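User: Here's a structure from my thesis project, written as structure tokens. My advisor, Dr. K., wants to see whether a designed sequence matches the one we expressed. Can you design one independently, without my sequence as a hint?
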């Protein structure tokens, strides 16, 4: 049995898009790495993500191999953000941001499990930030939350909406600014040669690239161009670019589109369609860590 903790903890991971709500966040156990600076340019931030995702997936497969139930889906990346001094958190002063990147872990995961996963990852890849990773309980308690859909640089109004809600309700902030990156998407795939080739190499870890309103990333597979390959597709179509061995996920116009169409670089094999809103992909930036795994029906 596989547990989707994001669904189990829906009140924490599925806030309203329209209004601020208050939740009482219980103590949760996280993989955590601290750092400082603009996440768009900081090598330390990218190194932290490599170590976090690497440990999280190594842990998942280690526990599955042990037969330790329940199996689970790796949770999304989260971040604590703050600044030193009395001025509070300024969303525009990125160079002075302090941050903790983190991924929550299921309740049955222990320190011993984490240390074993770290040793396995060190033997395999040894990411440079692995030595900074810790396993720690974090308790926030009452928290105000809302969901923001769109690029990170456009989240300012949502942050201000939360701040206004806190002020108007007679409360005051008592913890760090906390973000959960819900850019995880799922897709329904058809029965095609490319789909089978992809299934054979999963799970895959890669790095995102963006091209207009398209996210693409390399995968270790090859396939011939299929008879129903297309260059112009609907938003949210899951495509395989045979010339570059990449999965392509368009959600809007690309640099060569005519009008609002989703025009790929060239004809691509069609694997399926996203189940979630394609606009969710707009929050993904070049260099973001990407993981693709098969979800059992």
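Assistant: Designed independently from the structure alone:
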């Amino acid at each position: 049995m596989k547990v989707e903790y994001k669904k189990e903890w829906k009140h924490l991971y599925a806030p309203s898009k329209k209004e601020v709500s208050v939740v009482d966040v219980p103590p949760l156990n996280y993989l955590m790495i601290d750092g400082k600076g603009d996440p768009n340019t900081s090598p330390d931030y990218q190194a932290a993500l490599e170590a976090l995702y690497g440990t999280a997936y190594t842990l998942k497969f280690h526990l599955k191999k042990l037969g330790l139930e329940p199996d689970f889906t790796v949770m999304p990346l989260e971040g604590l953000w703050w600044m030193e001094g009395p001025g509070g958190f300024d969303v525009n002063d990125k160079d002075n941001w302090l941050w903790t990147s983190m991924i929550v872990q299921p309740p049955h995961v222990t320190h011993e499990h984490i240390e074993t996963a770290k040793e396995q990852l060190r033997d395999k890849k040894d990411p440079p930030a692995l030595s900074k990773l810790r396993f720690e309980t974090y308790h926030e308690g009452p928290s105000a939350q809302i969901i923001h859909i769109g690029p990170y640089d456009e989240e300012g109004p949502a942050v201000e909406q939360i701040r206004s809600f806190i002020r108007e309700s007679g409360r005051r902030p008592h913890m760090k600014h906390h973000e959960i990156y819900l850019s995880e998407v799922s897709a329904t795939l058809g029965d095609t040669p490319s789909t089978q080739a992809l299934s054979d190499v999963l799970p895959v870890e890669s790095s995102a690239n963006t091209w207009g309103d398209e996210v693409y990333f390399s995968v270790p597979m090859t396939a011939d161009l299929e008879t129903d390959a297309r260059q112009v597709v609907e938003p949210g179509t899951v495509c395989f670019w045979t010339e570059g061995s990449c999965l392509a996920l368009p959600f809007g116009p690309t640099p060569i589109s005519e009008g609002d169409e989703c025009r790929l670089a060239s004809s691509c094999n069609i694997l399926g369609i996203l189940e979630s809103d394609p606009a969710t992909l707009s929050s993904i930036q070049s260099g973001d860590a990407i993981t693709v795994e098969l979800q059992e029906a």
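When you compare it with your expressed construct, this may help: The mean pLDDT is 91.
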